[in-house]
Amino acid sequence: MENHLLSIVTFLPVLGALAIILVPKEKLDIIRWGAAAITGIQLIFAIWILSVFDFASGDVQLVEHFAWIPAFNIEYFLGIDGLSAPMVLLTALLSFLAVFSSWNIDKAHKGYFALFLLLDAGMMGVFTSLDFFLFYIFWEVMLLPMYFLIGIWGGPQREYAAIKFFLYTLFGSVLLLLGMLALYFLSEPHTFNMLILAEQSAQFGQAILLGMNAGKVIFILLFVGFAIKVPIFPFHTWLPLAHVEAPTAISVILAGVLLKMGTYGFLRISWPVLKEATLWFALPLAILGLINIIYGAMAALAQRDLKKMVAYSSVSHMGFVLLGMAALTPAGMNGAVFQMFNHGTISAMLFMLVGVVYDRAHHRDIEGFGGLAKVVPVYAGVTALAFFAGLGLPGFSGFISEALTLIGAFPVFTWITIFATVGIVLNAGYFLWAYQRVFMGELNSKYEKLEDINGRELFALIPLAIITFFLGVYPTPMLNLMSTTLNQLVEVVKSAGMAAGL
Amino acid sequence: MINLALLILFLPLLSFALQIFFGRRFEDKKGEWVSVGIQFTTLIMSLAMFVMMISRNDPNFSLEMQKSWLDLGVFKIDLGVYIDNVTIIMLNVVALISSLVHLYSTAYMAGDVRYSRYFGFLGIFTFSMNGIVLSNSLFMIYMFWELVGLSSYLLIGHWWEKKSAADAAKKAFITNRVGDIGMFMGMMIIATVLGTFNFQLIADRILDGTWASNAGMLFGGIDPHKLLTIAGVLVFMGAVGKSAQFPLHVWLPDAMEGPTPVSALIHAATMVAAGVYLTVRIFPFLTADAMATIAFIGGFTALYAATIAITQNDIKKVLAYSTVSQLGYMVMALGTGAYVAGFFHLVTHAMFKGALFLASGSVIHAMHHSLHKLDDHQTDPQDMRNMGGLKAKMPITFGVFMVTTAAISGIPLFSGFLSKDAILAGTWTYAANVHDGWLANLHMAWILPVFGFGAAAITAFYMFRLIFMTFYGEAKKPDIFKHIHESPKVMTVPLVILAILSTFIVFTLPSVNPISDHGWFTEVVQSPETAVTTGAAFDLEHFEHGMHEAHVPAMVTSLIVAGLGILLSVLVYLLNKISAENLATKLGALYRGSLNKWYMDEFYINGIIRPFLKGCDAVGRFDLEFYDHYLINGWGRNTKRTSRGVGFADDLIVDGAVNFSGIIFQWLGWTLKFIQTGKIQNYLIFVLIGAAVLFAVNVY
After folding, report:
1. Contact A43/B at CB under 8 A
2. ipTM attached to this prediction
3. A357 lies in which domain range?
4. Does A106 reach chain B within 8 Å, measured CB to CB?
């Protein structure tokens, strides 16, 4: 069994989805608990994977490698390293917890949970694949369930939001596909194997494509595909809309896992395979990171819809990931991937919390509340915790990762980093301002009878809060998990750059 | 010793956890006494460390312990504890004020809606503050720095039902963060150049030339000395925020919305002094220019805040501005190189200002009860214009007020006299001896004594104004006056203890000379060696000698100016020989400026915050219009909209581009939809097509 852990963790949800389709639709409890059980088992497997994972090695582990379509040298190639292991854990964790945020889905439960599990499989597959073709398939597999999950179970404008999400992502996928094929045909022998592609990195840096440096052209193709997912300005506008319309659990997945697929794609493919182009594009990427940080925070400050504010805060927080990645220093790189994980847990909390108040008040207008702390003290307390985690208070994991990205980027992009620190103030601004308007002041008499957060909701939130707090006080386990791989990545990209005289 | 320190650090955190998780259930069962007990335990431990320090009598004593916390192989951050005599004294100050405030609060906060949570928050504050005190590195101090910011936020906003309290809490946190980003940038510079955050290592590596050889890697080969100045000033920005120095002082007066014991503990005695403490810690690597900047900001703040305190009528606001002013003194002292004097004033100030706030709390408490009896919810219990004549009703509070006012005004026999005199002697010496730093280069060093003595005169004036308005004269509201009573013992005992600690002898021992500039304090606290090898403002020995020389003239001058201030106060507010109203009308613009805090809040709101939020709105709309674009008009009417939107094209370049591709890809999407099914066969077809395209591209 140990040899197939990654296949199991990836395809278990597919089996679960099939099983759920077979359950009669009246048996609501079986469907829900079935989904919880499947994702729960998946989480156990994810933890098992970490327990057999060798922290000291930076290479890919738990490899499953078979020829799949030999005619095109396409392989079934799974494996994880310090970059993907945290993402596997994050995906399993958030999928499990999001099931509990899906409890009050009010129609077509069977379809919902089946698609939810399919989505889960797609995400997991993206993080475990080491064959670009396989990666791409999982990337697309995830797209369709997402489209339906937003389009059918979403808010009032769900259809537009879904179509918009779909078109945006599709646009990216097409370019990603072209980039992938270009790599395939430029590699010798033709391959989709990411590790081999990475070894042939220098070759891509010298080849010519469309009359230009192939490495740079392909980098841009892949960049657009990944940037839309992150999302990086100016490809971010699908995000607030999709978030606002998506049901709570899907927002959790969207912010918690999907956005990371973009930055993961960069680090898994663009960085190692296109090393020289990466160095060449590092500065523009850092500038985009800065724009994300400031632009996202400013837009968040302007929002009246709580969920939109949280959505824009994601844009801002992902900017730190970009900045840290672009810096190509150990601190920046580890900070970036740590920030990916932390943003996953923190934004998941934030979206769950928004869902809690929306389920009760049926609106999310920040100005439409007031003084809620009086009637829902537990909810107010948990929200305060999540908001302070979100604004990067020391003691919560987000602080460490943001600080690391900034410290890591500072020697490389000094001025950009100086401006990026302004984001620290702005983040505090919108979180505290929103908190004041929702929870403080005189109690809005409409909400005198508001119910406090319930046990099921707390059950989904508390593990995240504990993780955020634990990693904020003691980040070592997570950093040990990732640092060997990431330091190696920094090393190879930089030495390739030096070899190329950059 | 280290273990003791760790206990002192973590016990208050335990108190926090207990109160947050179990406090509610024990609110009627004296649950708060657990916290009080914990706090007094840490006081006893701190005192034990104090006694050890005195018996050791070694100014160079230091201990350090650190553990790896975050290790990326090539980059690591250690957390650790550094203990020297400054640490020990500071731990005692925090433990003492915190314990007394805990005790005092059992009466002051009795019956509060969130009573147990209040004690919990006091716990997390004390924990974070001890963390700052014990930190051995900039990074660790930064973490606890933010945590005291959190506890300050929670405690200022304790009565968050009031909008003003919620506003003040938010303002405090965000204003502090503005200072903190400066501090963070300074940290990043230091970490980049030296590869460490540790205070001792920073000093060592500046001394051994690492700084000079590495600094060039930043900002394209900047002069290392200049970079050190920049780093020092940036880190000091954290202190500007936390210690409410101009121009980030605006949050502190508003922070008076918090409960008064909190004002005493956090916003007078300890947390706001953290900025001064930080400056003490970074003192060894401040350049002459950085020190000149620090001295100037501190001196300016001292005078500036004093001019505002004159006209305030809210008893807590007067004390708040006086705190800002006194913090300015401490900062100025450190900037002039009078290290011992600056830290000394921090300690004496903690005692007398803590007492002043607690005593004002006692007055407010009495006023509050009286108003409660009268069922009066309109009258402001903090407005001194509603007081008067309280001396008769509240003798203990009055006595404490007198002693501590004497201390803050710099009257002999009281502690403030000693420390303030040392600071003024320091500015005097600085002005006379300094030969480097921009103040000296501009021949402006003399401005520091002007700031210092000017603020001293004004301080004496407004403090006695406060005394006269509150305790002397006729009761301005006789019916309120009727119900005024002295506060209970748990409140007055802390007051009396702090008043006793505001007398000279506490600090001059073993000497009993009330004007002595030597005592146990100067025995155990001595200025550290500077790590800045080039361009030091002056050599230390020369400076200490100058301090000694300036001691008497500075003392005489300060006595004269304080005397003048008190005299004027007596004439105006006690004897009514000069009418305050007439003075106000005559001074016109000056009076209004002072009353309105020189319009700094207005400047920030109208000049920075509003325009910025407008900018944010513009950004938000910029993003939103785009959605409207989609949502309202739909795909089919996109074209029409786009042509009409040409006028907006400038604003909406990004939108336009995305819209345009939206149209194209709508079409593309419809086409591709049939391919993008996730079916492998279809993908393979796509692969083939793509391959054909690429071959075609490659061939031609």
Report:
1. no
2. 0.92
3. 299-502
4. no
